[in-house]
Amino acid sequence: MNKRKKMRLKRIKMHPVTTYILLTLLTVIVSGILSKVNFQTTYSTINQADLSIVQNTVIVENLFNYDGLKYIISSASANFISFAPLSMFILTAIGMSVMMASGFMEYLSKKLFSKIDNRILTFLIIFIGIVSTIINDIGYLILIPIAASIYELKGRNPLSGIIAAFCGIAFGSGTSIFAGSSEVTLIPYTTSAARLVDENFHVSILSNLFIMIVTTIILAIVGTIIVEKFIVPKFGKQKEKRDLQAENDIEVIDDIESEEERLSREYKEHRGAKYALIASIIMIIIFIYSVIPNLPLSGMLLDMNEKTYLKQIFGDNSYFQDGFTYMMSLLFIVTGLAYGIGSKTFKNDRDVFIGSHDNLRDLGGILILIFFASQFIFVFRKTNIDTIITGIVANVIDSVNFGGIPLLIIAILLIALANLFLPMAGAKWQILAPVIIPPLMQFNIAPQFLQFVLRAADSMTKGITPLSTFFVIFIAYMNIYNKDTDNPIGIFKAIKIIMPYCLIISLTWLLLLIGWYIIGLPIGPGVSPTV
Hints:
This protein is mostly helical. It has a domain at 252-361. The chain has 21 helices and 2 strands. The protein has helices spanning 16-36, 66-81, 84-102, 104-111, 118-132, 138-153, 158-170, 181-194, 209-235, 241-256, 259-289, 309-314, 319-343, 349-359, 363-383, 385-399, 404-419, 425-442, 447-461, 471-480, 491-519, and strands at 40-47, 52-59. The chain has a two-stranded antiparallel sheet. Strand 1 and strand 2 form a beta hairpin. The longest helix has 31 residues, at 259-289. The radius of gyration is 25 Å and the shape is globular.
């Protein structure tokens, strides 16, 4: 009997750094090919000053040549330094390291989080992640490491916590419970496009308030079900032998530990928590006072050149928005120091630095990952491929000869597709608003509702595109907490893991939008989905 040998291809397991390098090389080569075939598009934008239509022709910039190579080499340092997640990550990591070293996170987990049901905790993480999008992308830097720590301290796999936090932020970025930076960015484009039909049209800051609140709650509930039913069982619990040994050691120590020592430890922990509470309240009062206008020495973080308060706090030149990451880092540092001093875990400054250093031991690997991710993203943007694809999507939508719900569904799906290549909502809406709003206004669909449609479609695929600047933070933390070092979690593996979340949430978004429009519920104060 002849035995057939089965040849199995060994699966290539690449580190995400290698993947980013290969994606960068592929982008350079593709730019050369597309440039040779004259890949380009022309799309329309609106001059907000006089509402005139401006025709924009964009061609692929060839980086697969001498000048392209010069750009890649000469801009590498600038790309890395100007990469948004870099400074935000370092600042947040420093603050978190002090709080972790003091033992405050462990105390909170033991006294607070351990008493919360796992499903409720997951809901809170996803809900907070969605709400955090009111202030740009700060949630990626703060909530992901906190969620990982909480899950780990509760005996759950920290990877599940990372996914819950990341998916809550990324796939819920189109909504929140109040107006924020997204409104400031999108409203000017919405207003300009709407005034092509009605020159007196006005878009209120609160025009999406009702639909945002409802969708935030629904997305958090659906997200919790997805994480608990699909994500958590996939990873299960993750405990190493040394962790189990540590638990056994703790049990022995507890048996022989005197009552006086236990009471002394609890007294120090409670005193540390009291110090931390007082310090955090003082810091929060200072932060709040810094964003209140027209009081003595107040409004330090506001851009007082703007007329409206929302633009003062969320505008392009807002000190609050630019400095929020630093403020949160300061809050973590001060709170951690206060707890450490009160609980005696910090006896001197050396304890602070040594303890913080231990929690920053993985920083080097993350910096390498961020460097190569920044090169890929900036190189891709330089080629103009993202803008061309979005322009093509705009032209496809503009060429559709029907309107109403069918056009709305097509627009949602095409925007979600364009978001894979151009994740920045403002840049997309500048191109898409002129071809979506005027025709759909003719079919009685309100521009305010279409603005929310853009945000929803943007959220559908935001978590699965490596071109999202904060996707690298997700990958970094997944590998920090991945105990199977022989099998790193690469870009495509991470996307595969969260794909169930993406698909179910996308369907949820689609049903919410179509259902809301059909029922005709108000989307904000005095605003309905129809004109």
